[in-house]
Structures are given as structure tokens and as C-alpha cells.
Amino acid sequence: MNFPSRFGVIVVGGGHAGTEAALASARMGVQTLLLTHNIETLGQMSCNPAIGGIGKSHLVKEIDALDGAMALATDKAGIQFRTLNSRKGPAVRATRAQADRILYKAAIRHTLENQENLWLFQQACEDLIVESGEARGVVTQTGIRFLSDTVVLTAGTFLGGLIHIGLENHSGGRAGDPPSIGLAEKLRALPFRVDRLKTGTPPRIDARTVDFSVMESQPGDIITPVMSYMGNRELHPTQINCFITHTNEKTHDIIRSGMDRSPMYTGVIDGIGPRYCPSIEDKIVRFADKNSHQIFVEPEGLTTHELYPNGISTSLPFDVQLELVRSMKGFENAHITRPGYAIEYDYFNPQDLKYSLETKHMPRLFFAGQINGTTGYEEAGAQGLLAGLNAALLSQGKESWCPRRDEAYLGVLVDDLISMGTKEPYRMFTSRAEYRLILREDNADLRLTEKGRELGLVSDARWEAFCKKREAIELETARLKSTWIVPNSPESEIINPKLETPISHEYSLMDLLRRPGIEYADVANLKNVPEVSVPDQVSEQVQIAVKYAGYISRQADDIERMRRQENTLLPKDMDYSIIEGLSNEVKQKLILMKPETLAAASRIPGVTAAAVSLLLVSLKKRA
Ligand code: FAD
Predict the structure, then answer these.
(1) Cβ(425) – ligand 1 distance below 6 Å
(2) pTM to 2 decimals?
(3) Residue 126 CA: which ligand 1 atom is closest?
(4) Which of 223, 326, 356, 611 has the most other CB atoms within 10 Å of its CB?
(5) pLDDT per residue as tens digits for the range 143-183
(6) ipTM exceeding the 0.95 mark
(7) Mapped to the 3 state alphabet, what secondary structure does 10-68 carry?
(8) Which residues bind FAD (predicted)?
(9) Ligand 1: does its nearest atom lie under 6 Å from the Cβ of 101?
(10) Sequence ranges of the binding site for FAD
(11) 156: how many CB neighbours lie within 10 A of its CB?
(12) Any ligand 1 atom below 6 A from CB of 51
């Protein structure tokens, strides 16, 4: 194999965004180079060894629906799987897997090394090659020049990375890895809006020094959920328990006593941290009335003793870290293997991006992942896939693509970032999606795989499996509609005890399934009805479609209304200050954000349905 003299796409950075970007582009048949600091750290989890969770598993399943790597790697590496919100409706149900970080990295690397059209190269990228204002390649730290049609930058927390432990700080991309300083300086000289964010991680602990007998144990689900539509339980390695301990008054006193050496509370760190993953010192200050916080003690893998104490992310000095850890039940003799730390890094205002994730200021340059102001592997992976896809499409001379808000969480993520920007690390939640009953984690393939196939992302194997599943759903739906139960038949006797009102006339199985208290399993295989064998993924879709039909059709109406609003343009010269009835707050937001459409205006936080109606009236008056 010879290196191509010119690549279609060069991806800089082999984290979660970079690996999905490179794989997506290569799957599209485009010659792709993945240039990264260190091949050993491909797919490395910088912080918690877990994939998925509420809102996040929705993104993982969407990546999977478009044939990305994250979900299958999780199935191969997950050492504890759970369905969160299992008693709530399907819209907010989520899959979370504790991952063995060594197995996860190995699975990602295996996928990368076996991907056609993909070239890996280890070296730091120091600069971009720019021709006529467009990105046309990269220069490495030793001066090697790689030419390309497009460049996707996914440098994570590495750009100008500054690591803090107490009042000590040093440059770094994350613990043990170099920062990216030269490239950060080059990018700061370009007309992008750059700012600083921060994130933090807890100290790691040696399990041999922990007393688990005094902690609450937290097992995974007995029937383990599967992350990938192409995955199965046989892929899962040995499953193990997590544990729970708590902080206490003593822990909180220790933390308070160390605040004068906290980089966050002495003004050494300016970057804003993730609101939903606060450091332990932040929690003690923000929730001063709480005298205890739950800490999840999560194994980092099957072949290591290291533990990840989820909930005590900190940048306090090491002596304070050790004391606070040892004040907790079970951790009295704990040995810290790696201190916790915070890292500050450059990120770019995502409002300077197009929906394809191409930058507005430099054509052919795409940004994805943490550098766009997000936090989390899943958010990074999803953006990476989109940026890699669109970079490949551009190199093929084709139109870009981005899913709409009613099609995917990925659409919500990109739209939120581009229309509103972010001042703090952005993470996904189901509450960010207005059409969450339609954007479920169980139907990401039905929403996206066909489009992925059309774009060239989806392999033959996945496409065949998907078509089979879609057909099976149709067949099973048709069977339930056409199979009838009559009163006093043996079948009706089986179902009757479950019904509030017994069967009084002939019913189809579909009608019966619609009734409260009846589940798919009740109607699936009745006596005298020919037996069928329906996979869980299929019966789940049939049941959800029937049980939630009313809500789903109402949401479909809302989507239709939103599409009309999407087509209603707000003139650039619209004077919001004179619209009667709008609050000053809404006026200010509209003047600041200048939404392009009525739909974009409606998504600005604080812009109510009443305000949207006033905008519509005002538009009609102008017409
Ligand atoms: P990364 O995973 O950071 O990958 C960047 C890649 O780019 C690396 O491989 C790097 O070597 C490479 N690279 C960078 N610059 C260059 C260059 N010039 N040349 C070549 N290669 C380059 N997420 C959460 O959800 N919750 C948390 O609590 C949380 N805490 C975190 C704490 C810490 C200390 C860190 C470091 C991260 C934390 N994260 C957290 C964030 C999570 O790690 C990221 O969201 C995720 O890894 C982002 O993926 P990415 O692909 O954008 O970047």
C-alpha cells in the first residue's frame, strides 16, 4: 500500500470525535488520514470509563445507526450494563455501560486498523496548509506536509491545555499527554472566536486498598441491554459490580479547609466547567446545606485494580485529595494511583460553524468534539461522525447533510450549538429535545440507517440486518392486525384476567395490545394461533408504536407545524424593539441572536409560544 499523495480528508486527533470522523470518511470511500499524537491512545477515555446514560445513549445509538464504532466497541468492552429510567416511558429510557477502558481502546483501534481507505499516522499536527484562504492540508511537528481536500480538527482538551492540581499548574493535553501549543497559537491568529473552558477528573484509587464490605454494591441488569443494533449479549465480557459510598461532614470540612489552595476558588482558573459534572469543591459550595453526596465506585477494567470514584472530581492539592478520599467509608486506607486534576483548554465559538461543521471563516476546515464547547465522549463521537461525513461529501463534490431536530439528537446537538453557542461545556439531555417521543434510543436505526445508506456510510451487512428488521416489524404489525380473538374462545380466556373489561366481541390482537395492562408478551403466542418467533428489537417497536400511537401522532403534528415555522424567514432588518407585547428580555435576545427563521426564534430559551405568535402577527403586518 502506498500513501496517497493527496488525501480527501485529513482528521487531526484520535479521540472520540477523530476516530468516528476518520471512520465515517473512509466508509464513504474517501482516502482518509488520521493524524494523532500517539497511536497507543486512539479511543482513549480521558475521564470516566463509561459510555451512554440519559441523552447520551441516544447519541451512541445514532452513531451506530450510521455505522459508527462507539456502540459496538461498548458491547465488546462493557463490564456493567444498565437500562436507566426503565420504569419510565421509552422516550427517556437510556442504556449505560461501564467500560473496561483497555478493552474499549483495543476495540476502537481494531476497527480503525481494519478500515479500508484509512491511514493512521502518529505525529503532532503543528499547522494547517492554507491555499487561497482554504484548508488544504497539515504540517506535522517534524515538518512533514500532508495535502488534502479537507481537514477535520478534533483536538479535544489539548489546545493550549493547562493542567491544575492545587496552585501548581503545567501544560498538558490530559494527564500523561502533551498539549497542543503550536497549533493553538496558529488557530488563535485566525478569525475564530476562541475562549477557555475547563473540566476535571477525580483521583484514581487502588482497589486492593479499599474495603468493599462496608459499601453498598450496585450490580448491573441481570439481562444485560445491548448498545449496538448489530451487537448481542455474547459480545459482552465478564460483568462485575460497582459500589457506592458517600462523602460526610468530615469530608466536607477537609474540602473547605483546602479552599485557599483551590485553583478554582482562588481565581487561578478562569475557564467555566461542566455544570452537570461539578467538582466536589463546587458541590460543597453550591449545595452547602447537603451533608453527604453519593459517590459511585466504578472499576476501570477487568485486568486492572484501578477504580474511578465517580463524584469527587477535584483540582484541590494532592494532600487534600488524599485526606478527603480517606475520610469516606471503605476508603480509610485508600492508595491514590493518579491524582485528580482540572484542565483548561481553548474552544471555539460553535456559532462560527455551518450545520455541516465546516467553519465559516475557513472553507474546507471542519471542527468536531470538545473544541466546539461540548463535553463527553458521545457528544464528541456524534459530531466527529457528522464532520467526517461532510468533509468526505465536500471532497466528493456533493452536498452536505445534517439531521433536523426532529430526526436525531445529533440534529438537536448541532442546532443548539450553532444557533445559541455555549459558554459552558454542553452535554446532551433528553430534555433538550422537543420531540423526544420520536427520538428514542430504540428507534435510532429506523430514523437514520436508510439515510446513512443513501449517503454511503452504511455497510452491506448492517443494511441487510436493518432491512430484515424493518420487514419483520411490518410483518408482525400486519399479523397482529389480522389475527382475531372471539369471546369465550380459549385464547380470550387467557387474556381476560388481564383486562379491565372482558372481551365482549371480536378483537384483533392489535386492538387488544392497545388496551392498558396488556403487553406484547400476552398476545404474542396464544393457543390456537400459529406460533411466531419475533426478535426483541422487533416486538419492542411493535409495542411502542401501538401503545404510544396517540402521543406519537400529536408529536408528528407538532413537527409539521415546526417545519412550517422553519420555512418562515425572519427578515434581517426586523425591528424587534417595536413589537408590542414582547418582554424586554425577549426583545433583547432576539436583537442579539438575530434568528433566521421563526423556528430558530422559538428555540431561544425564554422565547415563549406567545412570543412566537406575536412575531407571526408582526410578520403578517409587514407583508
Ligand atoms: P479527546 O478525546 O480529548 O481527543 C483529542 C485527540 O486529539 C487526542 O488523541 C490527542 O492526542 C489528539 N490531538 C490533539 N492535538 C493534536 C495535534 N496537534 N496533533 C495530533 N493529535 C492531536 N467528559 C464528560 O462527559 N464528563 C466529565 O466529567 C469529563 N471530565 C473530563 C476531565 C478531564 C481531565 C478530561 C481531559 C476530559 C474530561 N471529559 C469529560 C471530556 C471527555 O474526555 C471529552 O469530552 C472527550 O474525550 C472529547 O473527545 P474529543 O475527541 O473531542 O477529544
Answers:
(1) no
(2) 0.93
(3) 18
(4) 611
(5) 999 999 999 999 999 999 999 999 999 999 999 999 999 99
(6) yes
(7) EEECCCHHHHHHHHHHHHCCCCEEEEECCHHHCCCCCCCCEEECCCHHHHHHHHHHCCC
(8) 13-18
(9) no
(10) 13-18
(11) 26
(12) no
